[in-house]
Amino acid sequence: MAQSKQPDTMEKIISLCKRRGFVYQGSEIYGGLAGTWDYGPYGVALKKNIEGLWWKRFVTDREDMYGMDAAILMNQNVWKASGHVGGFSDPLVECAKCKRRFRADQIIDKKKCTECGGTLGEEKQFNMMFKTQIGATEDETSISYLRPETAQGMFVNFKNVYDSFHPKLPFGLAQIGKAFRNEIAPRDFLFRVRELEQMEIEYFVRPSEWEEKFEEFRKEVWEFTKDVGLPKENIHELEVPDGERAHYSKRTIDFEFDFPFGKKELYGLAYRTDYDLGSHSKASTVPLEYFDEDTKERFTPHCIEPSFGVGRTMLAVLASAYTEDEMGGETRTFLKFAPAVAPVKIAVFPLLKNKPQLVEKAREVYALLKKEFGAVEFDDNGNIGKRYRRQDEIGTPFCVTVDFDTLEKDNTVTVRDRDSGIQTRVAIAELLERLTKLLG
Ligand code: GAP
Fold it and tell me: Which residues are recorded as binding ATP (predicted)?
């Protein structure tokens, strides 16, 4: 069976995502809002599965990690101390004629507008934080920002968690949440958006052990890509050179992915030194330090930060899963999701909708599987071929069909494998065990 990925894969993925209820354009009925996307029922299920795998690997499966959920709005002094007010910017050029703005580092001709041919102005720095006003007064003191990274919520809570739990170094804080960046040029579907979601860890270490812990997280990032089913050969490490790293980082590895539009950053792993705790200690005058009971030493811990974009993970997962093949003389589209991320694990059908005994039996099987696996769908719309096509397109690994043999012969059902299309008869009594094994 020949399988292929076409060059126009992105358009096909975006269209499938809309058609099948994964992702819609933000504010679509008003013409959309650039850089925003709304997750529909299957999109949110896929997203929650990804986040669940991340939380399990990095929080619940470990003894040294503390989960957090900090506020998105923070005191403006957080962003002054972190360096974001002064330095979280991209180079921008504006066309004198059509007023369009471009990211200076992403255009080839820095003098001429590609849209209207007008002259581009001087390059200036554009701060990407969304500024807002807190409360009814509009003055300097009421300024706040929508956080551009979740990280700072963890740095400013270092002392709170330390005082509540008295953890020994090394230990980490982890959170999943929204971040906002006023990107000059949002593009490539979920890849570069203005409202994004991050899964981040701030892992605090002794200065002497940063290299060892950096290596440990380097491996863990790779493990996570396996959890969500990304092919190893499509991921590449990039050692970010001096001069190109964020202002806080002494070492950064970008994990790049072969997206359909090119090799681009998927995740980052940074050694943030004691930059953030040190800056916040100084600016807030609250010491953010660790006290070593053994040596009686007090010091500022250093920090390793693995940072993962949820949307970029979704896009990488969708792009890897998107497959076309020939089946039954027709071109078939399917999402080859790893079962762990698939929004629906199993679909149950009666062969025919208008045979009450088939429907009743299928409902019974559905209830049995739903109780065990949760993400199970019942479908009796249209003919069986249509139902298979729909489940293939949303990436359901297995379809279970109740047919006349189930009723008249042997109490077995067919279990159809999404990738091969092969159907196997399985006794209902053995169905739970078989599907548990198949779903891994
Ligand atoms: N706290 C560190 C930090 O925010 P970053 O490299 O700017 O570092 C981390 O962002 C991750 O967040 C990226 O690797 C990417 O997965 C995701 N990300 C960043 N900007 C994004 C955007 N505009 N749209 C979608 N994802 C984005």
Answer: 181-183, 191-196, 265-266, 309-312
Angle at 199 between CA 321 and CA 68, to 5 degrees: 145
CA nearest ligand 1 atom 25, residue: 192
| pLDDT the model gives residue 7 | 54
pLDDT above 80 for 12? yes
Long-range pairs of 324-332 with CB within 8 A, sequence gap ≥ 24 = 324/3, 324/4, 324/5, 324/6, 325/1, 325/2, 325/3, 325/4, 326/1, 326/2, 327/1, 327/421, 328/385, 328/421, 332/389, 332/392
Q: So what's the pLDDT on residue 387?
A: 96
Domain with residues 3-68+132-318, CATH architecture? 2-Layer Sandwich (3.30)
> Whose C-alpha lies nearest to ligand 1, atom 9?
307
Using CB distances shorter than 6 Å, the residues near ligand 1 are 149, 151, 181, 183, 192-193, 196, 198, 200, 265-268, 305, 307-309, 311-312
Residue carrying structure tokens 């092969």: 422
Q: What is the mean pLDDT of residues 213-239?
A: 98
- Residue 98 · residue 119 · CB < 8 Å: no
Q: At what angle do helices 41-55 and 310-321 cross, to 10 degrees?
A: 110
Taking the centre of ligand 1 as the mean of its atom positions, its distance from the CA of residue 348, in whole angstroms, is: 39
Which pair of structure tokens corresponds to residue 111? 């003098």
Domain edges within the chain: 3-68+132-318, 344-439
What span, in angstroms and rounded, lies between the C-alpha atoms of 55 and 59?
5
Q: For residue range 318-368, what is the model confidence (pLDDT) as tens digits?
A: 999 999 999 888 999 999 999 999 999 999 999 999 999 999 999 999 999
| CATH fold for the domain made of 344-439 | Rossmann fold (3.40.50)
Mutating to test ligand 1, I would choose from 51, 154, 196, 261 the residue with most ligand atoms within 8 A of its C-beta, which is 196
